[in-house]
């Protein structure tokens, strides 16, 4: 009982509490750190590739929308001059064909009549 201390009625054994000194090999610790850094760089590279692809797809969408906007502007300027663009005529005749006009047989004949009368 000489090497154990008595603290408040309990026997305390030395060296059993607290953090033990690190006995990890320094080379292994450095290698783990290097490996972690490699993995971090790989994750960063993948993240940047994903973001670049996302940006390029958004840029393509913006270009398509700008082209569509230019087309609508041309249509509006043509309509301001009293001309109806052929695309709008096609859209209007397409909408008329979709409207219900009674039975299915009557709709088919009216489609044929609209096409032949407009041509």
Structure description:
- The chain has 119 residues and is mostly helical.
- The protein has a domain of 68 residues.
- The chain has 3 helices and 2 strands.
- Strands 1-2 form a two-stranded antiparallel ribbon.
- Strand 1 and strand 2 form a beta hairpin.
- It is rod-shaped, with a radius of gyration of 40 Å.
List descriptors.
119 residues; mainly alpha; two-stranded antiparallel ribbon; disordered C terminus
Number of helices: 3
SS class: mainly alpha
- Rounded to the nearest angstrom, the distance between the terminal CA atoms is 115 Å
How do the strands of the widest beta sheet line up side by side?
A: 1-2
- Principal-axis shape equals rod-shaped
Q: What's the helical proportion of residues? A: 55-70%
Approximate strand percentage: 5-15%
Low-confidence parts: 102-119
- The ordered string of helix (H) and strand (E) elements is EEHHH
Largest sheet: 2 strands, antiparallel
Kindly provide the radius of gyration, computed on alpha-carbon positions and rounded to a whole number of angstroms: 40 Å
Mean pLDDT comes to 77
The total count of strands amounts to 2
């Amino acid at each position: 009982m000489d090497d154990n201390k008595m603290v408040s009625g309990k026997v305390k054994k030395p060296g059993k509490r607290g953090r033990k000194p690190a006995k990890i090999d320094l080379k292994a610790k450095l290698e783990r750190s290097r490996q972690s850094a490699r993995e971090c760089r790989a994750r960063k590279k993948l993240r940047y590739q994903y973001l670049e692809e996302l940006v390029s797809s958004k840029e393509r969408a913006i270009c398509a929308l700008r082209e569509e906007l230019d087309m609508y502007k041309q249509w509006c300027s043509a309509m301001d001059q009293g001309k109806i663009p052929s695309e709008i005529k096609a859209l209007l005749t397409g909408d008329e064909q979709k409207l219900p006009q009674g039975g299915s047989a009557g709709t088919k004949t009216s489609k044929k009549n609209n096409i032949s009368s407009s041509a």
